[in-house]
Give the backbone structure.
Amino acid sequence: MDQGIHLLETKSMVDNRKILLLGPNTSISLDGRLFFTGANYYYVLAIIGVLGHWQPLIITGIFIIIEFIFYLFFILLLKKIFTATFAITAFLFISLSPYLVIHSRFFWNPHLLIPLSILTLYFLLQFLHQKHYRYLFYAAFFWGFAFACHYSAILWAVIFLFVLIKSHHIHNIKSYLLIGLGLILGNLPLILFEVRHSFYNLKTIIYIFTHSPRAGDFTSHYVVFPFLIFSLYFILYLYRKYQLANFLLIILFSLLTIIQLKIFNYYQPLDVIPGWDYSTQNHVADLIAQNCPANFNIAATIQGDTRFYDLRYLLDIKNCYSEGVEDYPTSQKLFLVAPVNRPPETETVWEVSSFKPFIIKQKISLNDHLYFYELEKSVK
């Protein structure tokens, strides 16, 4: 769902030449109120989308290549600071990590925290070694950019505090001013939105976190993506400082990889929908777009995203536009992808039930798991 929504909003931004100050909304909401990340991710996705002609498979490939280039930069940095053995061990751990391999199959705004943390780490190390303030500013800029992509980057405050203590700048006002300036410029779209709208996001965050019992919930990506790079660096730093044997590092990374294999079931995708692969998605999009009707909507009962944002996007790039996600009751035609054991006549999800009464104009077997239905509104 996230990829479909993000691509739809980014492509709309580019097509309409709009300037956005807000990016995706977060998954946390309360009483109809929700808050948003910054628009930085959409601008990155816009560049990659244009380069990839808005094709999801090409966009995913470009993201993989970009992250791979940053990983290589990180590994070369580790080789320069530590040893080739340490660098290769870290590279193998990253390359074989089931968690990272699974996440490389799709693009998502938290993923940008990895390349941004590599840049932040690099400039913080430059500041520690050369004491030039511009490096502290560069690091803070990329911290602000990361914060715009995902709020978990706020945890990097601990890293910056450590660097200020280690560099003996903990009482230096200039350091804090430069960090503040870098944060503002790196997160400028969101800052502008907040100033123009009486700090809506900040007020909403405070409201939700003081009233919602779910506000403290978090998932693995809240920790993995902001801290992966910094954690790898500090592990290697401690191994060198205390002169621990190299084989202990190999054992540690091997154990971490085995644990991931146990948890993530040998590289299985996070959301497995039987029969709903990329070729089937395109096939369904072609079935609708070849005679793109007016006043139609789409729905799915094969996944949690019943409003079918992935298919909405594939139709969008084929210049076939469905009605909005609130328009199901007034649509005249509904295209539905459903499991073989969930016929539309007995369906209770709002996207289908609000369309009743209807007649089934067409029913196509996509594979052993899924049917494609064309439903048409009937007169009561």
